[in-house]
Request: fold
Amino acid sequence: MQVIEKDRKRYFLGSNQDMQEIKYGLPGKVKFCKKCVISNQRPSSTPEFQHRPESTKQTIHFDENGICDACRYAEMKDVSVDWDDREEQLKVICDKYRSRNGSYDCLVPGSGGKDSIYASHILKTLYGMHPLTVTWAPHLYTDVGWRNFQSWVHEGGFDNYLFTPNGEVHRKLTRLATQNLLHPFQPFILGQKNFAPRIAAQFGIPLVFYGENEAEYGNPIDQNISAQRDTEYYVDAAGGPNELYFGGVPMSELGQYGIRHEHLEPYMPPKADDIKKSELEVQYLGYYLKWTPQECYYYAAEKVGFEANTERTEGTYSKYHSIDDKIDGYHFWTTYIKFGIGRASYDASQEIRNHHITREEGVALVRRFDGEFPRKFFADFLNYVSMEEEEFLELADQFRSPHLWRKSSEGWFLRHQIA
Ligand SMILES: [Zn+2]
Reply:
């Protein structure tokens, strides 16, 4: 028995009987997938409303052969999915909803990254749809992100609603989420998730198309075998004001930070009645079309002049993935601190599954780049969350789970490195 419980905490019993505390309900023994480079510490996607600092996390499932569900799902997409049939299904949906007078018939949310450009462009040009594109603004647009957003609208030829949440409120929520959860992206994710169905319900647009289903990267396989996001997802989250947490704080206690209920309106899920009235259908295009992030990049570059960065993103080796927000780097760096999984691990795992790189190459990339501290926009980030450098770094250390990290005189080290 390697995991023991004591005083309501869990500990991993090391080889020399040292007790290492396990935070966040993570698995005590670290394992890496035999096909990709993800570890079993990766949390599954959970509704962000339920986030509390110590809440138990569900993590990605590994089968008896040591292979993660995301890899098994990728295999299914390679081998057993009939993509011609899936495209036919997509055409049926488009035929059902396509407007005859050019009015909006579907809504495509996105920031102007490669995936939303691909989704909206292909729906318009190949399937004759009339998408309205909507954007929940990044915290702080990067220059290249802003140019890509503009190219999407101008070169791609789309109507777009850009929504920027109240900067003062969003900064406060982001600070709370950083302080309480070391999750600076939590308020953004909340707002962005609920934004598209809210706008669709407001405009009476019955169909929302997301690109890829993010759940494919961590959720159990049986939850992915569907094209539709269950609209109950939104309804459930609206269980009642006192059940909702923002930045790790119950909604009823946010007043002390100067955040009132009406400030939170943009973050809330659409009302159940509105969803039912508009008979909203939320679809993933990635269910119907075989989705490859690299192909989306090439497509977006060719069709609207999407630009990659000139240099690789800190913490990884890629140049075109998630480059529109100055805060992005801190999202990935904080997952490295909490779960030992950094940005290169996510990128390499995805590229191994799509056969762009081998596992051996992936391992080398992870060992080289994972956890590299994002320096480039550090001053912007600190300013955004109103923290001093030392304060933030000390805070981050408190979120390191002892079963993943050990401290020596030279600094912090992961106990388990991929090999
Ligand atoms: Zn895997």
Observations:
- The first strand starts at residue 3 and ends at 6.
